[in-house]
Amino acid sequence: MAEILKVSSTSDPSATAGALANTIREEGVAELQAIGPKAVNQAVKAITIARGYMAPSGVDLIFLPSFVDVEIDHENKTAMRLEVKTRLPFKPDKATGNKDTEKEGGHEDKGADPEGTENRQESNEEENGGEDILDI
User: Fold this and answer.
1) I want to staple 17 with a disulfide (CB 3.0 to 4.6 A). Which of 49, 52, 57, 98 is the partner?
2) 3-state secondary structure of 23
3) How many domains does the chain have?
4) Is residue 131 part of a domain?
């Protein structure tokens, strides 16, 4: 797991979001840790802002909250740990060795799916007796 990004009540959500987005791009997953309600609020704001930073790349972020016991100044405290992942599988830059998605000539590589239909969600309401089920 990547380095834990520690968020305080005075952390700038935009700066934290930038660090979070860069960690996701490099590692594919990130962890935020916050102690106290104001710090948790700043962490959730940072995740929300990072989702906006990542959305143009087609990457949607989700987070899984959990509690973790930490020791600070020889005192045990309970922190909130927020594991941030991508909704769909994502290859981080670290694994591919590429820092951007641009190929030579200035065009993005569309691969075997030139129309971008591979991850499109479609409604099957008529096929399923009125229930709206999404195929991914």
Assistant:
1) 49
2) helix
3) 1
4) no
